[in-house]
């Protein structure tokens, strides 16, 4: 799971830079010295360096305690300034003093809501008593957890096993747990019962025994999950708005009876292949999952296949996607396909079943790399993607990408989509991007491209 979770926000560095300058110059801070402590404390909170992976005296919040006595007093009396705990067990094993500093950090946070990011020590089997004591103290502070991210390997798993992850969590909003295959996540005993504010849970691999307040979740993510578990999750989370599933190909699932499931609230669905070995399977993951799903509210669909980009990989049957897009209730606004194992002609057939599309992104395989077929279809066909507003094609995986697209065909398509003939009612293509097609860069000086850009179309040629 990408640690692209909503657990940390972008830091605001203004106060930190000012503190560094003041400390270096040892000069007066001017009008800021007249601010009330409460106001100064709020400024300090916004200066918190949330990208910090270990306490650093040259960065906030520790830096704020070194500027002057007043700033130190305000910083130490502002618990929210210390509410972000990023603990890397590897780093703490290399520097024992960090354990004591983290302990003091946690004490300074007092009763403020906590953001806890805990990374495992993958290189060792045992930890010191002080590290174990700190981890247990963090677990005992679960009533203050607001956003939590655990990367669990064997070391941390051993520390969690005696107690598991379970208690009352009155402030918890997001819980992310990522474990490698060698960790039996079932043994961690994850049981989140009383967490009235919990709405987002990324967990990988998926543990069928995990206990969550399913009915209140709106975001769920698992990078390793089989199809029956996906369907079970959808059944358990009736209010799910965003689902991210890394589908693992389990041949035993094919013999299991699975009924079609209708989910009335799902807005965004991201399906990826959870195992690169699925590339050799006849029915490519994540296609089979779509067979069992009806999503009338779905607006954004992302399908990412782990199919090898070599041309020898055989194209697959796209009928599952075609059937899914052809459902009367399907009204997609955005579709992103990466390495879908089909031909360009079959891809066009699928797109014909999705006239509501406004945004389309494609990273092709060797079979769909002939973009001329798609661009020709987009020219002169008013019933093909009539609402399309943006188109993005990424050819960065192809050394000979110039053979897959013709500049003159692209220009003709752009002109037609920007200013269609009288009587043709289609949306105006507002944005076009094609990546890693070197001949396309020559179009930067094309008169028609210059005109389109001047009139407002966003054209990116890389």
Automatic annotation (TrEMBL):
This is F-box domain-containing protein. It comes from Mycena metata. SUPFAM superfamilies: RNI-like.
